[in-house]
Specification:
Helices cover 31% and strands 21% of the residues. It is α/β, with parallel strands linked by helices. Bound molecules: pyridoxal-5'-phosphate. Pyridoxal-5'-phosphate binds next to loops.
């Protein structure tokens, strides 16, 4: 099987490493934009479609600016993420604030900036009202469907998730905020992550549309949007298949037509319900790469290739045993006749980018590409073992490369320490 796509040749990559030593992340703007356009085109058959890019997946304002240029908003779950969105030029209701266990000051800031506040719990109504002195005109709730009725097994086990309001709470909550003066309403859910089933998303949307109809019938509340959350998966493994945007969009449209238009009379005729999502993984994941160099080889009970990146740069394999495709620059067509563990330098044995993986023979100095690292990659990085995280490069659509975040330095690592105080500190 042909190796996975990578936008630069070995020579181009070697040239790049002269200016930017490994390890680094590389993001492919052209591919990212094409995907964003494909998603938008597919889902534009739904009224008011908007994707709010979940900032936590790739919190880089350069990337966010590109995505905003493609019409995306931002989904934030913390105050710094809101600030970052503003720096990228995303403001007001283009920011969805889907947080949980939210501190008071974050609600205050989100409200001040006019972000859409999406509450994770019924008790947050009073908490928010106390923080900001009332209820915003527009308010949304995150629904947790819990143990669903038969035939909906596809939705997994939301009853074990900490998020959202139960079904009875949802009705109570909307009634309460309406009484407190809310005028505009949204409805949100997110019950899975890295899901590859097309039908799963259609089911989720249908569930939200049905709930929207119930809210209208029982409380005379008309939601102006449903937000299906994130969670669209990507094919990390070669045998997996990407979610089909057109299939999902058409399925959701059918659910909309069944439930909202034809189904239960004409309650939504005048104002169509907008369709939102807040994905990250599928938006940037496949278009980001961690580029690292083989610096050691070790022959003990297994064959090891030691690289100059570590789990501190990309935690997913170590944390979840997640699979990431690994290729070797310039050896795309070579036989995969070796079996390696490709490992980083952390003093943790789970610091392995690939375990017992069939790869071509790797020599010291080879450039190793770790694929599908564009979401929940560098963002999840950390500084354990005083590891300094890799920087980020953007391959622009015109073929040029810009650094969009430099690599960390020792000074960054020390930035929160006061060495002056230490000098006079008596042990
Ligand atoms: C993490 C998260 C997302 C994005 O998830 P993906 O799986 O990357 O699409 C969206 N919304 C919320 C509330 C999240 O926590």
């Amino acid at each position: 099987m042909a190796d996975r796509y990578f936008p630069l040749s070995k020579n181009q990559l070697e040239v790049l490493t002269k200016q930017y030593p490994t390890p680094f992340y590389l993001y492919d703007e052209k591919a990212m934009r094409e995907n964003a356009q494909k998603l938008t085109k597919a889902f534009s058959i739904l009224p008011g479609f908007k994707e709010f890019f979940a900032v936590k997946g790739l919190p880089n304002p350069f990337i966010m600016k590109i995505l905003a240029d493609e019409g995306f908003g931002a989904d934030c779950s913390s105050l710094p993420e809101i600030i970052l969105s503003e720096r990228a030029g995303i403001e007001g209701e283009d920011i969805m604030f889907t947080s949980n266990e939210t501190p008071e000051k974050e609600y205050i800031y989100a409200n001040l900036k006019g972000a859409v506040i999406n509450l994770d719990d019924i008790t947050h109504i009073d908490y928010l009202a106390k923080a900001i002195g009332g209820i915003p005109e527009l308010i949304s709730f995150r629904y947790n469907p819990g143990p669903l009725k038969e035939g909906n097994a596809i939705i997994g086990k939301p009853e074990e998730a900490k998020y959202g309001l139960t079904r009875p709470q949802i009705f109570e909550a909307y009634a309460k905020v309406k009484e407190m003066g809310a005028k505009r309403f949204g409805l949100h859910t997110m019950v899975a992550s890295n899901e590859l089933s097309n039908d799963y998303f259609i089911e989720t949307a249908r569930m939200l549309y049905e709930l929207a109809v119930e809210l209208k019938e029982k409380l005379d509340i008309q939601v102006e949007f449903i937000n299906m959350g994130g969670g669209i998966g990507i094919p990390y493994k070669p045998e997996q298949k990407a979610v089909d945007y057109d299939y999902v969009a058409q399925g959701v449209k059918k659910a909309y037509d069944d439930v909202i238009c034809n189904g239960r009379q004409d309650c939504f005729k005048t104002t169509p319900i907008k369709f939102f999502m807040e994905c990250a993984r599928v938006i940037t994941g496949p278009y980001g790469y961690l580029v690292t160099r083989a610096i050691h080889e070790k022959h003990i009970y297994r064959e090891y290739i030691g690289v100059d990146a570590s789990m501190a740069d990309l935690m997913r394999p170590g944390m979840y045993g997640a699979y990431h495709e690994v290729t070797v620059a310039g050896k795309e067509d070579a036989d995969k006749d070796h079996v390696y563990d490709v490992v980083g330098s952390l003093c943790e044995n789970c610091d392995k980018f690939a375990v017992q993986r069939k790869l071509p023979k790797i020599d010291r100095g080879d450039l190793i590409i770790i694929h599908d690292a564009g979401a929940h990659g560098r963002a999840m990085g950390f500084n354990y073992n005083a590891k300094l995280r890799a920087g980020e490069l953007l391959l622009r659509s015109d073929g040029s490369v810009v650094q969009i975040r430099r690599a960390e330095t020792v000074d960054d690592y020390f930035a929160t320490l006061d060495f002056k105080k230490l000098a006079t500190f008596r042990a």
